């Protein structure tokens, strides 16, 4: 009998909770930021690629999609409300190639590689364009929430609409380039004494990312 799998699942489940209710009576909102997915790029075709890649990234994050064969754009474009909890001293990383200092604290990623094999779209220049916008939204909110947020590489080579330049995050993940990938990642560590709830909400073209602290 293989008991390793159940044990690992149990241990992992102690660090994150995939879906939780945000009860105003026992939570405190630390930050909330939003962007319009109709304003990602001034070319409609390119904007739609960015929009779809952002929504697909959230679908991978939530577990709604786990592989390319799961991709159903009508489902992915429906309103979203997804939450997960990050316990104290634990880290969220945007992808799995992480810096050495975070290897023992990362418990959650977006579970995506941002490539064609995952179902991400290309605007003719880069497959996965748009995911940097999602990372930047998260970084902005995390900084405003007072969390320990680190983005090694700024997205200063291109404007991210509705995000101040200093909060632009460059995301990159190429097979066989783990060191370079780790430097183009986003790391958010819960430096509070209580659990933190991350909430993603999408409706009427608006994507909102909110952060709450549980009051225990």
SSE blueprint and pairings:
Layout (H helix, E strand, L loop, with lengths): L3 H10 L2 E2 L9 E10 L7 H19 L10 H4 L3 E7 L4 E3 L12 E3 L22 H14 L3 E3 L27 H5 L4 E3 L6 E8 L2 E9 L2
Parallel strand pairs: 4-5
Antiparallel strand pairs: 1-3, 2-9, 3-8, 4-7, 6-7, 8-9
Gist of the model:
By secondary structure, this protein is of the alpha+beta class. Helix content is 24%, strand content 22%. It has helices at 4-13, 44-62, 73-76, 131-144, 178-182; strands spanning 16-17, 27-36, 80-86, 91-93, 106-108, 148-150, 187-189, 196-203, 206-214.
Give an account of the 3D structure:
This protein is α+β, with helices and mostly antiparallel strands and 216 residues long. The chain has one domain (17-214). It is built from five helices and nine strands, in the order αββααβββαβαβββ. It has helices at 4-13, 44-62, 73-76, 131-144, 178-182; strands at residues 16-17, 27-36, 80-86, 91-93, 106-108, 148-150, 187-189, 196-203, 206-214. The strands form two sheets. A five-stranded antiparallel sheet has the order 1-3-8-9-2, covered by helices on one side. Strands 5-4-7-6 form a four-stranded mixed sheet, covered by helices on one side. It is globular and about 50 Å long. 39% of the residues are buried. Mean pLDDT is 91; it is low at 1-19.
Q: How many beta-strand segments?
A: 9
Shape: globular
Mean pLDDT: 91
- Radius of gyration over C-alpha positions, nearest whole angstrom: 17 Å
- Uncertain spans: 1-19
H/E topology pattern: HEEHHEEEHEHEEE
**Number of domain modules:** 1
Helices, by number, come to: 5
Q: Which strand order does the major sheet show?
A: 1-3-8-9-2
How much of the sequence is in beta strands? Answer: 15-25%
Report the biggest beta sheet as strand number plus sense, adding barrel if it closes. Answer: 5 strands, antiparallel
In whole angstroms, the N-to-C terminal distance is: 39 Å
């Amino acid at each position: 009998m293989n008991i390793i799998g159940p044990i690992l699942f149990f241990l992992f489940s102690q660090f994150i909770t995939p879906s939780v209710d945000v009860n105003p009576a026992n939570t405190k909102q630390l930050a909330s930021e939003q962007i319009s997915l109709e304003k990602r790029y001034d070319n409609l075709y390119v904007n739609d690629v960015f929009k779809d890649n952002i929504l697909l990234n959230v679908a991978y994050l939530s577990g709604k999609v786990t592989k390319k064969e799961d991709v159903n754009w009508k489902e992915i474009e429906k309103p979203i409300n997804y939450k997960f909890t990050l316990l104290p001293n634990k880290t969220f990383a945007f992808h799995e190639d992480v810096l050495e200092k975070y290897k023992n604290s990362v418990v959650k990623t977006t579970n995506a590689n941002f490539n064609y094999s995952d179902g991400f779209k290309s605007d003719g220049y880069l497959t996965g364009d748009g995911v940097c916008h999602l990372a930047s939204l998260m970084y902005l909110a995390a900084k405003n929430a007072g969390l320990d947020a680190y983005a090694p590489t700024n997205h200063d080579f291109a404007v991210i609409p509705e995000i101040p330049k200093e909060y632009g995050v460059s995301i990159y993940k190429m097979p066989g380039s783990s060191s370079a990938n780790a430097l183009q990642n986003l790391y958010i560590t819960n430096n509070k004494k209580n659990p933190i709830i991350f909430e993603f909400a999408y409706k009427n073209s608006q994507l909102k990312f909110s952060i709450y602290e549980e009051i225990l």
